[in-house]
Design goal:
- About 40% of the residues lie in helices and about 15% in strands.
- It is of the alpha+beta class.
- It has two domains: about 60 residues, no CATH class; about 120 residues, 3-Layer(aba) Sandwich (Cytidine Deaminase, domain 2).
- It has a five-stranded mixed sheet, sandwiched between helices.
- The chain is globular, with a radius of gyration of 19 Å.
- It starts with 15 loop residues before the first helix and ends in a 7-residue tail after the last strand.
């Protein structure tokens, strides 16, 4: 059996309110020290599948789901902090873990950018483009504008494959070279492009495609 440290967090939806909460509030909610009114269960939440324990009521399941989402948010913040303290590629597993968590459970493609300083420390991250189940339209000009606005010296980009297959396509390879050339015109280096699918995270740089 293969053990994954984020098993159980992979299929959770994003919690926008958790992303904006303080660390103290998140920890308090995890420990049950902070009262948080739960929203009314959706019809889908009221349906209990054959795999679910019959005695688990929807409110209990929703509370568990929320606390797992809070745990996911705390893990992502810790990983981001580590990427801001030193060159992101000096600890590539940290970046991979963050990308897996960020893309976990998404049913549509997203294109992410991590803006880096001259020492390749994380300045900021952004979901630059959002697409459908099978494709995302990426505009190099917009990525260049965002990088210049953050005074980035380098960028790492990533996108997910909801299909579960992390193998880069020919279109992915062409896009990478296009982005590399566009960014080079303004003296910004594209250091890597990752394709994320479930537990898989393929690096273009490691494959010699960048």
């Amino acid at each position: 059996m293969n053990f994954h440290p984020f098993q159980g967090l992979q299929d959770l939806p994003d919690l926008p309110d958790a992303a904006h909460a303080s660390r103290e509030d998140l920890v308090a909610e995890m420990l049950g020290l902070r009262a948080h009114p739960l929203p009314s269960p959706s019809p889908a939440a009221l349906r209990v599948s054959d795999r679910e324990t019959p005695h688990e009521d929807p409110a209990t399941q929703q509370l568990l789901s929320r606390r797992l989402g809070v745990a996911r948010e705390l893990l992502m913040r810790d990983l981001r902090d580590r990427m801001a303290q030193g060159p992101v590629m000096s600890s590539p597993q940290v970046l991979r873990d963050w990308l897996r968590l960020r893309c976990a459970g998404l049913q549509h493609e997203v294109f992410l950018a991590l803006y880096l300083d001259a020492n390749h420390r994380l300045i900021a991250h952004e979901e630059v483009f959002r697409g459908t189940l099978t494709q995302t339209s990426v505009y190099p000009r917009e990525l260049v504008k965002s990088a210049l606005a953050r005074n980035a010296a380098a960028i790492a980009v990533a996108h997910n494959h909801p299909s579960g297959q992390a193998e880069p396509s020919r279109a992915d390879e062409f896009l990478t070279q296009t982005l590399k050339s566009a960014l080079a015109l303004v003296d910004i280096r594209l250091i890597d492009h990752f394709v994320v699918a479930g537990d898989q995270c393929v690096s273009f740089a490691e494959r010699g495609l960048l």
